[in-house]
Automatic annotation (TrEMBL):
InterPro entries: DNA_brk_join_enz, Integrase-like_cat_sf, Integrase_catalytic, Tyrosine_recombinase_XerCD. Keywords: DNA recombination, DNA-binding. GO terms for biological process: DNA integration; DNA recombination. This is Tyr recombinase domain-containing protein. Belongs to the 'phage' integrase family. The lineage of its organism: Bacteria, Bacillati, Bacillota, Clostridia, Eubacteriales. GO terms for molecular function: DNA binding. Residues 199-227 are annotated as: Disordered. It comes from Eubacterium plexicaudatum ASF492.
Length: 227
């Protein structure tokens, strides 16, 4: 799920790990980026008392057709984890987090970066930082639509900030009045253009081969992790 939110929406790690279900509206297909997890969560933390200050103003984003199945899968997985914890008589720390450990506890940002690196290694892909997903999303959205202002609103950037991300230099503060209020509909248009392109570029899912029986418990690869 972190890779989906980072790659499709350009969200920061702290925003992804601080996203709560109370801010996700599956009925209207929107979610609010209004909280973020503290940068340094102490080891073995089970309950988050308060979130860190936002790096930018909160923003409402649409859940596209491409992204919706991932939200539903994540929700179903967590419901199953809660039920399993109850059956096993183990505690479940319900922080209401969209991305959390199997027991509901918060995940450290460093773990996300580490697992992302292992995922790229397993897939034999060049190494990039997790944060580079944000820059990739920004670049692709801008190239597909040319709408730097709406891209900035999707990312939670200032005009100057989105200019830096896209490598553009101009007087962004002179944007015309029609860009001052970016409506949710326009954000959806920009994200749909990007997500549709991602969906078309994705290779068809290959038929999975019958797994070979191995002695002992196999080590879980990063490609099997819920990223």
């Amino acid at each position: 799920m972190p890779v989906i939110l980072g790659g499709l929406y350009g969200m920061r790690r702290s925003e992804i790990l601080g996203l709560r279900w109370r801010n996700v509206d599956l009925e209207n297909n929107t979610f609010d980026v209004s909280e973020q997890l503290p940068f340094k969560v102490p080891p073995k933390t089970k309950v988050i008392e308060e979130m860190a200050p936002q790096k930018s103003n909160g923003r409402k984003l649409p859940i596209t057709e491409l992204a919706r199945p991932f939200f539903l899968k994540q929700l179903a997985m967590q419901e199953a984890q809660k039920e399993q914890a109850a059956k096993d008589g183990k505690p479940y720390y319900d922080n209401d987090l969209v991305v959390a450990k199997a027991d509901g506890a918060p995940i450290a940002a460093s773990w996300v970066s580490s697992q992302f690196g292992k995922l790229l290694e397993d897939l034999e892909m060049p190494h990039i930082r997790f944060h580079d997903l944000r820059h990739t999303a920004a670049t692709n959205m801008h190239q597909l639509t040319g709408d730097f202002y709406t891209v900035g609103e999707v990312l939670g950037h200032t005009l100057a900030g989105i200019g830096v991300s896209l490598g553009l230099s101009m007087n962004f503060e002179a944007a015309t009045a029609r860009y001052v209020d970016v409506r949710l509909e326009r954000k959806k248009e920009v994200l749909d253009a990007y997500h549709d392109a991602v969906g078309k570029a994705a290779p068809p899912k290959a038929k999975e081969a019958e797994p070979k029986k191995a002695k002992g418990k196999a080590k879980k690869k990063s490609t099997d992790l819920e990223l």
